[in-house]
């Protein structure tokens, strides 16, 4: 980039610095010369006269001549010394600045060409350059991270698509070869796999929009107890069928929260679906709404299989499933919690998970700021 800029304007940094210093030097020399020529001999002459010497004395004329010559020589020597020092200083400074700029420019070019591992070393050229290298390296970190995420996302999506497509293909081939009949069971399998692909497409679109902050939120003050009661109501029947008890507890009074009713219902829906999927018959799912200082906590806890410590930090990642085989059989693609997290954060809240481990149940806690009292 510097090279292009240099060729475009034709003059490099060192030359510009040298020209600037030359201008300063010439200005200083001319000023010193003019002032020296106008003031120096006159002052010298006045001192001679004050010392009682005659104006026209040959010794005085000679001394004044010597003074002028000495002044001229001293000024010329000072000018040459200053010019040499200025040239050396500008070359050293320009070389160091240009070296650091070139390093940043080369790294930016590498980054642009897709080398996300490139970083710029600190230059030791002062605060501004430190700021430049720090910002550049932070930018490179972000790009590298999003590149890794993109690669992983693509690999995950490819992996998710492969299984249902292979199943559909296997069945269709078997039907075409007359090995398999297209009966109700086969149609169910095919539809189930097609539905899995549709849900993957839907979830991917949802998580992409939510994580990019590209969602319209209809924020309004809502009482937290309304949210938990509605969620329990929506899941009561499915839980009863699975032999799981679902109930809600809400502290009263609770301050309202400013959220999008539908989005928050979607988050609780995801958490309840997970809880029910991981809680065997005879278990219990509890939804709690409580106050913690000026925040409101919504908690979904279950007495189910729990989450092992090594999986806990990852459950909010896209496509992460703690127990791959079983979760895949039950149809989850591992996106539900990633969507939930993005939605909660878009509404100004946070979401956390805690679990004592295998078979200890799991608790998901959403923390939302209490809405300002009207
Ligand atoms: N209540 C829970 N108890 C035990 N494990 C859980 C619980 N909730 C989530 N998990 C673990 O976290 C993983 C990620 O959950 P997430 O909701 O993101 O995906 P999923 O439920 O597998 O699929 P999807 O929600 O996309 O249908 C799950 O696969 C499961 O292993
Ligand atoms: Mg889920």
From TrEMBL:
Its main location: membrane. Coiled coil: none annotated. One of its GO terms (molecular function) is phosphorelay sensor kinase activity. It holds the Pfam family HATPase_c. Its EC number is 2.7.13.3. It is an enzyme of class 2 (transferase). It comes from the Bacteria. Keywords: Kinase, Membrane, Phosphoprotein, Transferase, Transmembrane, Transmembrane helix, Two-component regulatory system. InterPro entries: HAMP_dom, HATPase_C_sf, HATPase_dom, His_kinase_dom, HisK_dim/P_dom, HisK_dim/P_sf, Sensor_HK_Regulatory, Sig_transdc_His_kin-like_C. GO terms for cellular component: plasma membrane. Residues 95-148 form the HAMP domain. SUPFAM superfamilies: ATPase domain of HSP90 chaperone/DNA topoisomerase II/histidine kinase, HAMP domain-like, Homodimeric domain of signal transducing histidine kinase. Residues 156-372 form the Histidine kinase domain. The chain crosses the membrane at residues 74-94. It is found in: Cell membrane. It catalyses: ATP + protein L-histidine = ADP + protein N-phospho-L-histidine. This is histidine kinase. It comes from Cellulomonas persica.
